[in-house]
Design brief:
The chain has helices at about 10-15, 20, 45-50, 90-155, and strands spanning about 1-5, 30, 55-60, 70-75, 80-90. It is α+β, with helices and mostly antiparallel strands. A hairpin with an 8-residue loop joins strand 3 and strand 4.
């Protein structure tokens, strides 16, 4: 939470109730009470403070070595923005699910490719079986002719 220096009622009340905010988040939530905005340049917190509007962004693990979702709500004293309440919540489980989904997608692609290869191989086997069946029929005819000739020779002897 970033508050302007000085103890006006809104900033003091917000700061005093920080424990209340903390219990509304899971254990992996982080709430920081701070004054200097310079430390937070370019962050969602600073953007919310300067724009005076609620912001929520999902971030990767580059900043805090964990994926997280940050929410920032400006604190107003009348019309004037006097600070911002920001909460960072771990997004590690969602990151893990995305990784699993990517791995699953890769596995499905591999299975699909294997199935396509099996389909091509099945067609090839089917074609070869047709050829073998024709060859077998031809051999059966040849064997019948040979038997006929052998029987003729037997009859002559």
């Amino acid at each position: 939470m970033l508050l302007e220096k000085g103890k006006n009622n809104a900033s003091k009340a917000t700061s005093d109730s920080i424990d209340f905010y903390q219990v509304t988040y899971p254990e992996d939530a982080c709430i920081i009470v701070a004054d200097p905005v310079a430390k937070y340049r370019g962050t969602t917190t600073e953007k919310s403070l300067s724009l005076g509007k609620f912001m929520r962004e999902e971030r990767g693990s580059e900043d805090f070595r964990m994926a997280y979702i940050v929410s920032a709500q400006p604190i107003f004293d009348g019309e004037k923005v006097i600070g911002v309440l920001s909460a960072i919540i771990s997004n590690e489980k969602m990151d893990g699910m995305r990784l699993l989904a990517t791995e699953l997608s890769s596995s499905v692609e591999e299975i699909t490719a294997t199935n396509e290869e099996l389909a091509v191989a099945s067609v090839d086997v089917s074609n070869r079986l047709v050829e073998l069946s024709k060859f077998s029929e031809s051999m059966t005819g040849d064997i019948q002719q040979i038997n006929t000739i052998v029987n003729l020779v037997k009859d002559l002897l």
